[in-house]
Amino acid sequence: MIEGMNFEYTHDITVVNREQFEVHVRLYEGYVKKINEIDVILQNNPRREKANSTFSFFRECKRGETYALNGVILHELYFENVGGGEGVNVANPSVSVQLEMDFGSYNNWEEDFIATAKASRGWAVLCYDQRSQRLRNISLDAHDLGNIAYSAPILVLDVYEHAYFLQYADDKTEYINRFMENINWEVVINRMSIY
Ligand SMILES: [Fe+2]
Q: End-to-end distance of the chain based on CA atoms, in angstroms?
């Protein structure tokens, strides 16, 4: 059984307003409910004997499993890494040195991350690719589409329309810019220190 996390809107969150934030949290809670439903079905032999890659109930369960669980995980990472009050903070060397090493400069990383977000239909993720031992900005078109196996998410930005449309309508660029000013770098630094 997966327990969902509680996310409350606070005034530190400037990237979105309360209404946009709360509707997004409700959507996240839907994924928590769904992965628990799917897990129960999977534990009770969901017609394994008819498993088929074109269409089968078992296939639907397996597709739903990774979609819903990644939906839970990515949203938790996203909600946790917003709310930084001081804008861009690269004073901590553990972040800036690593970003400079892998992207040439902080500014170059930022430019690349913003472009990745604009180019994505689902998520932009700064991750640590353990195979190459370097950071990458990766683009996910869905929760389960584009992840690199054996990589660890460091900074997560939701760019699905549901994340911003209520407040920003079609101004995705403004939403992304406001996100960049509201990153909780403490959370990012903590994640980076694990890898
Ligand atoms: Fe979302």
A: 27
